[in-house]
Amino acid sequence: MPAKLDQQITSLHPPPSRRLRMLALFLRAAFILVLVILTARVSFPQSEKIWSVYETPGDLIRLVVGAVLCLWIAIHLFRPPKDPEASRTWVYFSLLAVPFVLICLIAIW
To answer: pLDDT: is 39 or 81 the higher one?
Structure first.
């Protein structure tokens, strides 16, 4: 019985078009790249040089946590979503999120 229900549900929503998938992947990549840049910028030490990170433990912890977070986010850049509905979700989400993250990046820089 559940297999029939799954088939009926999937037949209600047609798969996304190629254009929609490409737009979703582009917007998703843009969002993730700007998020990595924003995270890297925030995790840099407060002083001018990167070598001054050893002066305070807070800067060192912030740099390590920021580097791990950037790596984790960047890994998701290369793992495309498997759900066909994810394309529509990423388009809707990214149309709002990318400009917001860009504004945050400009404000922090």
So the answer is: 39
